[in-house]
Input
Amino acid sequence: MGGSALFDTFARAPLSFEKGEGAWVWTTDGEKYLDFASGVAVNALGHAHPRLRAALAEQADKLWHVSNLYDIPVQRELAELLCANSFAERVFFCNSGAEAIEAAVKTARRYHYARGDVDRIDIITFDGAFHGRTLATIAAGGQDKYLEGFGPKAAGFIQVSFDDHEAAKEAIAAPTAAAVLIEPIQGEGGVRPVDTQWLRELRDLCDEHGVLLILDEVQTGIGRTGRLFAHEWAEITPDILAVAKGLGGGFPVGACLATEEAAAAMTAGTHGSTFGGNPLAMAVGKAVVECVLEDGFLDEVNRKALLVKQGLAAVVDTYPDLFETVRGAGLLIGLKCRLPAAMMLSAVRDEHLLLVPAGDNVLRFLPPLNVSDEDIRAALQSLDRAAGALSLDAVQTNGQ
Ligand SMILES: *Cc1c(COP(=O)(O)O)cnc(C)c1O
Output
């Protein structure tokens, strides 16, 4: 891996996978791993789902790309499906989460601009947030480790601390405030849920001051938390929403959803994307959303989420020296560790279970939404074995 022709931007685990089925992946050496990472909440329906394979193959036989110079029927159909099942009335398609956030920020600023409020450019964000790696989205995330060495931080992003409600209120009341941008549950930040009451209060504050509410549901969207979108749990709606990861089930796609009013100023020529809404991405995205919206699918996600959470709670009880708490919603579950999460991550990998690290010393469990009970039990057993081995090590080390 050293000496490869690739940028060194990723600290990769020494594993190469060549095939997958359901929640399982196989390495080039034929070793089998249980995939509760799902490509960071991307493979929403697991690997090689028959309906997604069929949707992709069928579209691949017909037409790959024409660009947004023309009408793309399947793009309209996916937009209509998303709108029929959410707050949204308009959709802009792109190719990633960061691009969906960029579109959301541009939409919010342009909304105020078109109303003559040209000073309303500030986007209010929260510490611990993650919104992507483009120049604007690292400014939105506000984390020094991602900003360092990349020139001036893009202007117009104001960050307040996660729990400082007074600071947020003050920022929203400022005449330069354009929008609040928040993840209903911080994913990369360590599966930190935003308090439901506070989310409702933020909605009210935005309304009171003519500020837009943008939700970053890049990770929480498309059934991940047991509802189509996580904000449904709080019974509020945003003005603008960014979604990506799970939407394509593994095919790169992102989308910015908005109300008619919020999107009104995004007229012809104001924004664009060569690949956004490409027929291949749209065909797969449509199949994913149709599966997630099928009767009983989200009930099953919630039932399985309870199985995972109960299982993890039992592991926390057994190894209080290694783990602290379990948190999250649906199948976006965080296990807060006492020992370094990286150590636990490699210990479970030795047991052939794939998880994802997050901030705040948390390990994320992100199984496919259609994971089987049997695979959940297998994952919990792997975790238990890994914890047992580490716990024993600790006892032996302390005893020496
Ligand atoms: C992953 C993620 C992004 C960035 O998505 P990319 O597709 O990597 O650009 C933005 N926001 C949240 C909440 C994410 O989890």
Observations:
- The first strand starts at residue 17 and ends at 21.
- Residues 96-98, 101, 130-132, 183, 187-188, 216, 218-219, 244-245 surround pyridoxal-5'-phosphate (CB under 6 Å).
- The CA atoms of residues 2 and 71 lie 46 Å apart.
